[in-house]
Every structure is written in C-alpha cells, then in structure tokens.
Please model this.
Amino acid sequence: MPELPEVEIVRRNLERWTVGRAIVAIGAPDLGRVDGDPGALVGRRVRAWRRRGKLLLGELAGADGDDGLLGVVSHLGMTGKWVREPGDRRFVRMTWTLDDGLTVGLVDARRLGRTFVFAGPPDAHPRVASLGPDPLHDGLDGATLRARLGRGRAPLKSRLMEQGRVAGLGNICVVEACFRAGVHPHTPLSDVPADRWDALAAGAVAHIHKTLADEAGDEVAYVNEGGPNPFLAYGREGEPCPHCGDAIVRAVLAGRPSFFCPSCQPL
Ligand SMILES: [Zn+2]
Model:
C-alpha cells in the first residue's frame, strides 16, 4: 500500500515527466474512479505537482482564453501508481498523452484509487484541507507530534495513523518509527514517556528519508509485490532484533499488523 514515501516518489516522477507539458489526449479513463470530467484536462498545461500526506496534487494552467486553474487530486488507494509509457499493461485506469509524445498512466490493480478533477487550486479540495501537517513538507518535532495526537488511552499507533492529526503516516511508517524510538506501538497515549516524543518524530522522518533513498526510481514497488524487505522491524516476525537479538513479535491492532521487539519496546 502506498505510504508517504511512495507517493512522494510518484510525485517527483510526475513532476519530472509532465511539468511544463500540455495534455493532448486522455485515454481509457475509468469513469467509476474519477470524480469530475477528465476530458477537461485536454489542452491544459501541467504547472506543478505537490503532495500532502498520501494525496498527489496536480495544478494545471487554464486553457487558451480561460485563466482558471484546474486541480487534480490523485489518491492511489491500495495499489495505484503512475508510470511512464504503460503501453498494453493490465489495469491501466487512465492515460495522459503529452505534447512531447510521452504518455503517463495510472495503473491500479485493485481499483481502489480515486482521481478528482475540479476547477480551482488542488489544495482547496476538502480531502486536502482536512489533513494534518505533512512530516516531509512541514517538518515534524516531538512537541508538535505530542500536541497533535492528544492524550488518553487510545493506542499510540492508531492516533499516529489518523490523517487529520499528522498526514501521510501509514502502518509501516508507524511500526518503524516506534521501533526506532523504542516505544511499543500499542502504548496508550498518556503512557508514552515524555522523553520519547522527539525520538518518535525523528524516527518517522528518518524512515521516510531512508525509504525515499531506497525506492526512488521510475516505478514504485509495494511490499506485497515481493522483493527484499528493507525495513528494520516491519515484516520481520521471529527474526532477531538488530539491537538486542531477541525475536521480533507480530501482533494485530485494528486489523493491521504491528511488529516490535518486546525487550526494546516494552508495553
Ligand atoms: Zn530489541
């Protein structure tokens, strides 16, 4: 599933492939997964790609004689990715052909992604406006994290994944941040030691930067697509903790797997 680093890699790719180019044709739009009129994109020039949390924000300049901006918000769902030259690949949900001849396409096997096309800047979309600060774009420190998450008995991991509190943290990032900080992911918020918040914020940001460095390329790969496991704790049940050698444990919270070292991250 795409988390912040994968969406950021897609953003950088879209920026490189499309900014400054005009769209000359839209192909095969999956109208069940698009809100708005994808045909309105034809003739528009791509001005910028930004990102907030797990949402891609495209800004397209007005067509000739129309100076209104067009906004695109792309949510990748479980398996979505934008690729160059999708050709005859399966599960292509939309293509954009550009005025330099390049075609970019949205590939989405599970078909859970969604694209919104609308008049106005992409930031104005309600899904974007409701998001919390973005750790990469806005930075994240312990005091901010603690204030955004609040207090109470809710598990740390659940609150970290609420996109309105901090945008873009997914299951893998939270598991890795908690491992790096030495905090059990299921710790009730009010029991998180005061001196661990800086480490949690730094752990999340460090995980994001490491994943960006590891996965950068023309096409993102998701964990469920196979390949080596690049994570410290995620997906490593039974393997030795890199700090103390004890076996990593897996437990499920709210239907999502957690991985932790019971010695380094006591509950
Ligand atoms: Zn350990």
The chain has a mean pLDDT of 94.
